[in-house]
Amino acid sequence: MQPTQLRPMTVVEILDASFKLYFRHLGSFVLISLMIMIPIILIGLPATIVSQQQQAAIDPDPLQLGLSLMFGAVLGLAGNQLLVGTLTVYISMIYLGKEISGFNAALLALRRLIAMLLLVIVAGLVIGVGFLLLIVPGIILALWLYVSLPALIVEKKGPLAAMSRSRELISGNMARTMGLALLVILIQIAIGMFAGIPVLLTFFTQFPQLAGSILSELIAALVTPVVTIPVVLYYYLKLTDFTPP
Questions:
Q1: What's 4's DSSP letter?
Q2: What digits encode the pLDDT tens for the residues 96-126?
Q3: Residues 245, 80: Cα–Cα separation, whole Å
Q4: Domain residue ranges in the chain
Q5: pTM score above 0.85
Q6: Is 163 exposed, middle or buried (0-12, 13-18, 19+ CB in 10 A)?
């Protein structure tokens, strides 16, 4: 496998390259998504059942409902970060022209899981505070931190160092980064609407609620590479043209 030669690209060209890479390696991305999310779904299944039973109950137990929802949220966050981290490793290997299995990519990502979770929490708090300060600072901070996760995984940096590295790479390219981020957000919204169809079916048809939730999670996982690839490619684009101050 030869290293990918990236040239300067417009935002539209980055998305075009991302979709081409996605379909070129579709089988691998599907296997990675299923490999990560099926165990996560099975581990969280008892909590999902309990929360759905409690929500449907006339007199729900607040403790059981709260604990099941909290467990599901934490597990979902960890599973999503592990999936995105695994995809980041796999996409990076494609870029570098190296062979790696989805399983080995997952093992590498698993070693950085705690750091990824800390990054998500810290970055979320920073961006949240920025949005409280009249919104604009939050947007600026979100753009500065756009490639923090690839920096954390590829360069093996800690959460704060990865955030700083992302700011270095993005500075001077805010407009372009905003254009890419907005398009990726639109894609995420479309994916979210599509993934939510099974859940909607449970409200308007006899489709089982549990099956709808599981199917929705699987659909979301299968298309997660679509929004991960542009971020990783953009990171490498910025990495190749970055000149330290």
A1: P
A2: 888 899 999 999 999 999 999 999 999 999 9
A3: 35
A4: 11-240
A5: yes
A6: buried
